[in-house]
Amino acid sequence: MRMALGNFPLLVEGNQPMPALSRRTNELGTENAFVVLAEVNELQRRGKNIISFCIGQPDFPTPANIQDAAIRAIRDGKHGYTPSAGIVELREAVARDIAKRRGITVSPDDVVVAAGAKPFIAYSILSVTDYGAGDEVIYPNPGFPIYESQVRAQGAVPVPIPLHEARGFNFDPDELEARITPKTRLLILNSPHNPTGGVISRPAMAAIADILRRHPQVWVFADEIYSRLVYEGDFVSITQFDDMQERTIICDGASKTWAMTGWRLGYAVNKTLAPVFSRWVTNTESCASQISQWAALEAISGPQDAADEMRKQFLERRNLIVKLLNQVPGVSSQNPGGAFYVWPNVTEACALVGAKDSEEFRARLLNEAGVAVLSDIHFGPRVPNEGQHIRFSYAASRQAIEQGVARMAEFIRANSRAKGKVAT
Question: What is the pTM of this model?
Answer without folding.
Answer: 0.93
